[in-house]
Write a structure and sequence with these properties.
The protein is α+β, with helices and mostly antiparallel strands. The chain is built from 17 helices and 23 strands. It has 2 domains: 279 residues, 2-Layer Sandwich (Nucleotidyltransferase, domain 5); 135 residues, Nucleotidyltransferase, domain 5 (2-Layer Sandwich). A hairpin with a 3-residue loop joins strand 15 and strand 16. The model has no long low-confidence stretch (mean pLDDT 94).
């Protein structure tokens, strides 16, 4: 049976899966690891951890019943947003850990950019703004703080590009990964921006000169590696791309207006479109499908499911310990929370437990409950947390709409949040859209496999596939939606009102250290 393999390198684990010509998953395997955090706000990973995880997952999938390694026609790799990229020398040896998306050390570089660069011009060229999230500020940090590494660096490679090199021996970068670096990629020209590279003082010769579509094979699988895995030599290694866009593809986003919310530890909402407005505070890059034409624009909350887990761990920890392995705290909270009216009897929650990304872009933003009284109990706070994260989702969706994007009338939600019927109803009511979910676990590795299938001719993404069962989970209530409209207005006023206090508290905390 002919098959293809999709691989996704995530922040905490790598996953591989095998699909057939109808998109059905035949085997899958994941392998976990940790993020290195040597200092507060730092987050980095060595690429050898990813490479070993890729090999582990490939071997497990290829040894699964019903999978014939000789029938694999190609593979594709997606990856976490790799920030700075991996600095490698002329022999392709890693010189320094990759400063990944969650690393926030480049604050001084962000301030320099704000003081010395025309931000309107930067936004017009790149479709993006400036923040320590973006890879170009992390590259500037490496140049300033690790000059010996910078001097020896031949290439800066995103995670999937590095793994593709290990698989095929070829050096290339896909358009989605290049665009996600921000700052130095010309979104209109689909190429590196010489103007911005010069303005920012970055070396263009450290970037791959070969920039390709995500669905383009970058080379063939190396014979020695193919032999060790039992695969055929020279099968296509497809470029791949950024995991968020690939997961959106797996959820069926293939044309402008399609939009998907991924709600796990963090939240990422993305829409396919063909124009951007950097002033709205969202992130844009070429999509992993039709990248010469379509863009993937997204925004996200740093702590979505993490806000829920924090609340349950902090306020219901004893219940969870007493119940052992059972999620009894959630079981106890959901029924009474479901009985509450929208607004949890006068409560609002700002979900900025780790600062916030779009559209506010404030590392010093902080979380809080507003409206607390002696009347409120744990289930009130629980519902307020669900509603607060959902307001953050709507905040990003409205920023997308202000760019002139016409959104599809339904919202597809994937990720761990879909296990909660209450949360799905809240999302429908807050966004005024029917919410659809997949019965299966739709994620980036599946998107990679679908792209590999199209690149090898095994699949046609224009045709219906059996890779997932989509069903309606919640229909918005007009009465609830009207109430949430008022609450969302208050939610949007909270951050600018409290911002000076948040920053003052953050400054005082820093001084106390």
């Amino acid at each position: 049976m002919d098959t293809v393999i999709g691989i996704d390198i995530g922040t905490q684990s790598t996953k591989a899966l095998v699909i057939d010509h109808q998109g059905r998953i035949l085997a899958e395997h994941s392998h976990g690891y940790r993020v290195d955090t040597p200092r507060p706000l730092w987050a980095e990973q060595w690429p050898d951890v990813w490479w070993e995880a890729v090999l582990t997952c490939l071997r497990a999938c290829l040894s699964a019943p019903g999978v014939d390694p000789r029938g694999v026609k190609g593979l594709c790799v997606s990856s976490l947003y790799g920030g700075s990229g991996i600095p490698v020398d002329a022999e392709m040896r890693p010189l320094h850990p990759c400063l990944i998306w969650m690393d926030r050390r480049a604050d001084a570089q962000v301030q320099w950019v704000k003081e010395h660069i025309d931000l309107v011009r930067l936004g017009d060229i790149t479709g993006n703004g400036v923040d320590s999230y973006y890879g170009f500020t992390k590259m500037m940090w490496l140049k300033a703080e690790r000059p010996e590494v910078w001097e020896r660096t031949r290439y800066l490679l995103p995670p999937n590009s590095y793994i593709n090199y290990r698989l095929s021996g070829e050096i290339a970068i896909d358009h989605s990964s290049a665009g996600n670096i921000g700052g130095i990629y010309d979104l209109e020209e689909r190429d590196w921006s010489t103007e911005m590279l010069d303005a920012l003082g970055l070396d263009g010769d450290k970037l791959p000169t070969r920039v390709v579509d995500s669905g383009t094979p970058v080379g063939g699988l190396l014979p020695s590696l193919a032999e060790s895995l039992g695969l055929c030599a020279d099968i296509p290694v497809v470029a791949g791309g950024v995991d968020a866009a690939m997961a959106t593809l797996a959820a069926g986003a293939t044309r402008p207006g399609n939009h998907v919310a991924m709600i796990g530890t963090s939240m990422c909402w993305g829409v396919i479109n063909q124009r951007v407005d950097a002033s709205q505070g969202l992130i844009s890059m070429p999509h992993v499908l039709n990248s010469d034409r379509d863009l993937y624009t997204f925004g996200g909350a740093l702590t979505a499911g993490a806000s829920v887990s924090w609340f349950v761990d902090t306020f219901c920890g004893e219940d969870r310990v007493a119940a052992g392995e059972h999620d009894s705290a959630y079981d106890q909270l959901e029924p009474p929370a479901r009985e509450l009216s929208p607004g949890a009897d006068g409560l609002l929650f700002l979900p900025y437990l780790m600062g916030e990304r779009s559209p506010v872009w404030d590392a010093q933003a902080s979380a809080g409950f507003i409206g607390l009284s002696l009347y409120h109990r744990r289930h009130h706070l629980y519902r307020a947390v669900l509603e607060g994260v959902t307001f953050a989702l709507r905040h990003n969706m409205e920023a997308g709409s202000r760019q002139g994007v016409t959104l599809d009338s339904r919202l597809i939600v994937v990720g761990g949040a879909t296990r909660s019927n209450l949360w799905m109803q809240i999302i429908a009511d807050v966004t005024r859209m029917p919410v659809y979910t997949f019965r299966e676990n739709v994620e980036a590795a599946l998107g990679s496999a679908l792209l590999a299938g199209q690149a090898t001719g095994l699949l046609d993404l224009d045709q219906p596939l059996r890779h997932g069962t989509l069903s309606e989970r919640a229909e918005p209530s007009e009465a609830a939606a009207r109430r949430y409209d008022d609450l969302f207005d208050l939610y949007c006023r909270l951050y600018p009102t409290l911002k000076p206090i948040m920053h003052r508290l953050n400054a005082n905390d820093t001084l106390c250290e």
